[in-house]
């Protein structure tokens, strides 16, 4: 009888019969989700990750099933970074399941002992987003992925009605107790919230954690009043796509994206996704408090990049983060 995997004999010699048996049982629990069993087994035996359930993503949110593998990386399991050949969106597949992501965020992501620092370092981000909201006459806002609720608190102090949500029930509990803000635990589609009840929804450095972006955009639409807006602050993955093609990222190494991200958006790919999802993109600009290629001239560079974008919307955004503003089209 032949080994089911060609490399099994070599792995038994290197790691021992019992260790291989343990990981083979884990591999069996994954089922068909693992697309390269030999590689998965070798990385697992090398002690590179602990078992966390994973799921495969068969389609880009734009609808295309044509994706190509760029690199593999370890984040609680062996994951893959792919690129949609239609819209250029980066997507992680396989990736951690929704339940596994919730566990990771609750137990390992938030700095519960540094609530004050967590909020203070985001002051420029909050002011930048508030400018967008005030310029459009927004009086009520809901923050999706609010963490402890620092932006909710800030928006209330600036005169807006504000509430928010987060997938981490622990972060929500801490935010309610220490910041005194209205927060809901769960994903937006899990919550029972009044429809057409807010002028705006913001998601600040959180939308790339959403398992199903199209479903999330639909849930946002239901919560918004007719003509309402969303403001998404996103990491600019223009450079991540280039890094993913470098030889250093072809081996199982580190992700060109922050390891916990599920999606890698560029201004082009998020604009395309919003438009096919029934939104009208109004603004896509470099974000404040964002690293750029210009070092100490960063503030001036962001301003200049914004001016150029206003004059020519095809000009590239050169900052690490950007804001996209879209209005509910119907």
Anisotropy-based shape: globular
CATH homologous superfamily of the largest domain, by name? Vaccinia Virus protein VP39
Percent range of helical residues:
25-40%
Give the strand order, joined by hyphens, for the main sheet. Answer: 8-7-6-9-10-13-12
Features:
single chain; 330 residues; alpha/beta; Rossmann fold; seven-stranded mixed beta sheet; four-stranded antiparallel beta sheet; 12 helices; 13 strands
Architecture overview:
The chain is an alpha/beta fold. The protein folds into two domains: 48 residues, no CATH class; 214 residues, 3-Layer(aba) Sandwich (Rossmann fold). Helices cover 37% and strands 22% of the residues. It is built from twelve helices and 13 strands. The strands form three sheets. It has a seven-stranded mixed beta sheet, sandwiched between helices. A four-stranded antiparallel beta sheet has the order 2-3-4-11. Strands 1-5 form a two-stranded antiparallel sheet. Helix 1 packs across helix 2 and helix 2 packs across helix 3. It is globular, with a radius of gyration of 21 Å. It starts with 7 loop residues before the first helix and ends with a strand.
The gist of it:
The chain starts with 7 loop residues before the first helix and ends with a strand. Helices cover 37% and strands 22% of the residues.
Give the secondary structure arrangement, pairings included.
Blueprint: H1 8-15, H2 17-30, H3 37-45, E1 54-55, E2 67-74, E3 78-84, E4 90-92, E5 95-96, H4 98-109, H5 115-120, H6 123-135, E6 140-144, H7 150-157, E7 161-166, H8 169-179, E8 183-185, E9 198-204, H9 213-223, E10 224-235, H10 238-244, E11 263-264, H11 267-276, E12 279-286, H12 298-311, E13 321-328
Parallel strand pairs: 6-7, 6-9, 7-8, 9-10
Antiparallel strand pairs: 1-5, 2-3, 3-4, 4-11, 10-13, 12-13
Helix pairs in contact: 1-2, 2-3
């Amino acid at each position: 009888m032949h080994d089911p995997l060609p490399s099994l004999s070599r792995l038994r010699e290197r790691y021992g019969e019992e260790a291989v048996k343990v990981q083979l049982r884990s591999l069996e629990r994954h089922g068909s989700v693992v697309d390269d069993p030999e590689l998965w087994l070798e990385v697992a035996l090398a002690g590179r990750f602990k078992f966390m359930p994973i799921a495969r993503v068969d389609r880009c949110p734009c609808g295309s099933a044509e994706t190509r593998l760029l690199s593999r990386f370890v984040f609680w399991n062996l994951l893959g970074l792919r690129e949609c050949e239609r819209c250029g969106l980066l997507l992680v597949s396989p990736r951690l399941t929704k339940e596994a992501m919730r566990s990771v965020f609750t137990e390992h992501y938030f700095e519960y002992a540094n609530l004050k620092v967590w909020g203070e370092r985001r002051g420029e981000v909050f002011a930048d987003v508030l400018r967008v909201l005030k310029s459009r006459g927004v009086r009520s806002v809901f923050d999706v992925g609010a963490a402890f609720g620092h932006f909710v608190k800030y928006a209330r102090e600036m005169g807006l009605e504000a509430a928010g949500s987060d997938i981490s029930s622990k972060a929500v509990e801490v935010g309610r107790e220490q910041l005194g803000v209205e927060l809901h635990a769960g994903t937006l589609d899990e919550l029972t919230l009044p429809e057409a009840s807010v002028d705006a929804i913001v998601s600040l450095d959180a939308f790339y954690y959403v398992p199903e972006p199209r479903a999330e955009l639909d849930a946002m639409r239901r919560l918004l009043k007719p003509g309402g807006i969303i403001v998404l602050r996103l990491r600019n993955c223009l450079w991540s796509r280039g890094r993913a093609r470098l030889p250093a990222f072809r081996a199982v190494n580190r992700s060109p994206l922050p390891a916990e991200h599920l999606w890698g958006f560029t201004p082009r790919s998020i604009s395309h996704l919003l438009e096919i999802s029934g939104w009208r993109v109004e603004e896509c600009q470099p974000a404040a408090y964002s690293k750029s290629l210009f070092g100490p001239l960063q503030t001036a560079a962001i301003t200049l990049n914004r001016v150029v974008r206003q004059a020519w919307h095809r000009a590239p955004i050169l900052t690490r983060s950007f804001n996209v503003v879209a209005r509910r089209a119907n």
